Amino acid sequence: MNIEQPAETHCSANSCSVSTPEANDLKKGALKRTPFSKFKKVHSNFKSPIQATSAKVSPAEEVAELERRREQLDTEIAQLEAEGYRVEELEHHIDMLHEYNDIKDIGQSLLGRIAAVRGTTTRDLYSHFGLELDD
Predict the structure, then answer these.
(1) How far apart are CA 126 and CA 99, in angstroms?
(2) What is the CA radius of gyration of the chain?
(3) Most buried residue, 27, 74, 102, 114, by CB count within 10 Å?
(4) Which residues contact 43 (CB under 8 A, 6 or more apart)?
């Protein structure tokens, strides 16, 4: 009977490492994995791609900007309504898209199960059932 030993975690102030029984059997330093990166600091702190703006905006300026944006959106809504678009129609289309996506997900799942039973790929089943790969 082969009983697996749990991995041990060792943490210091700056990093944590996991020690497994297999790794403990290897000579120290024999295998050292360093993530490949074209950047110099691989283990640097996470830096969000969204940069915080340093310029402080007063509440009055923020309200004015929001009112300007609201007027712009109201103008766009009025233009779309003048072209014959209706909110109810949009909601209906969104509901139909949700239903379509649910049905498509079920179909993909069924194709995957049939492929597994037949020992083939879903790609082969597409041609067998006359489906396009874009479907």
Answers:
(1) 22
(2) 29
(3) 114
(4) 15
**Cross-strand partners of 18:** 9
Q: Cβ(114)–Cβ(125) under 8 Å? A: yes
The set of residues, in sequence order, having a beta carbon less than 8 Å from that of 69 and lying 6+ positions away, is none
Give the integer Cα–Cα distance in Å for 125 and 114.
8
Name the token pair of 115: 């492929």
Both tokens of 43, joined, read 């283990």
How do residues 60-90 score in pLDDT, each as one tens digit? 999 999 999 999 999 998 999 899 988 888 8
Q: How many C-beta atoms lie closer than 10 Å to residue 125's C-beta? A: 16
Q: Give the pLDDT band of residue 8 (cuts 50, 70, 90).
A: low
Q: State how far the Cα of 63 lies from the Cα of 81, in Å rounded to an integer.
A: 27
Strands (E), the chain: 8-11, 16-19
CA 14 to CA 61: how far, in whole Å? 42
Residues in Cβ contact with 64 at an 8 Å cutoff, skipping those fewer than 6 apart: none
C-alpha distances in Å from residue 3, one per residue of 6, 21, 121: 10, 11, 36
